[in-house]
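hi! just following up on the protien thing from before. the input was this:
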Amino acid sequence: TTVRWVRRRTQRTVVLGQPVRRLAGEGGPFSFGNDIYLSNRTLLDSQHLPAALRHEQAHVRQYHTLDVLLAQVATALAWPNPAAWLLRRAVLDNLEYLADHAALQTGLDRRAYQYSLLHQQPGGVPAPALAFHFSFLTLKNRITMLNQPASTTRQLGRYLLAAPLVLALALGYSAAHAQVVPTPAPAEKPIPQDVVYYIDGQKSDKESLSKIKPDDISAINVIKGPEQQQIFGAASADGTLVVTTKANVSSPAVRALGKRIEAVQPMVGATPEQAAGVAAAQAYLAKTYPTAKVQMVGPAKDKPGRYHAVFVQEGKRLQLFFDGQGHPVQE
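and the predicted 3d structure came back as:
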């Protein structure tokens, strides 16, 4: 199948604490089942990587692949009828809106997120038909939905008009789908008040955050619950917002806070050997290139036991390979 073909041509790595599969070349991000696929181009784009990753994480966590499979089965059973194809398109669009909404709930800036959508480009390794992937056909509608509250009446109307067809030809698909479509978000949502802000590894405030341009932000992380208490020594009702700017991504304060977070939130899915190898490579870069902006550190493709780092030093993009002890090796 296409999914297996694509999966065999990828390499497993960990990005921002999330296991992903790396695609060679360019191409927009997509997901299938529990797997998130990111191209080298996306992985090296520190400005837009968080938005792409959060969007695909939403698809995975909300089990949207099941919705897509149900929609495909319904379309196959009623393929001669154009209404079945219209319903399929509506279902896929709705899942994209839900993933966009979930990504914004993690603390991403709304305007910067829209810029990230415009920045994505299709191409490279083709995404499987059953996977979630970027499409210019829905881009305009997605941006429109991001800037206005969802309409409950319109949303229900789109499904109710097609319900008789689906019930008759798709053996109850509408009833199954109705169980997995979440209620649209309310137009008004209380603004979090009890938020602790950390900017570039230092405790800060909302006013300082408002002065930062979205294009200058490298990463945003929201930490809540018991982990917040362990990392920062105190907890707040609405969590701690950790913001790292591009100019200070490799600063001592950012690295120190990153180690504290990593101690509580280790890389998900990484083996102990991988975690140790990545940490050793990061330590070497911090000591040898203290002013470098590290873009990626992870297992090297097709080189078991080796690790690959990409970083920017004095305006030049460089790369190094390491062994499991963090010693640079020639490739």
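Residues 281 and 326 are 4 Å apart (CA to CA).
DSSP finds 14 helices and 13 strands in the chain.
cheers
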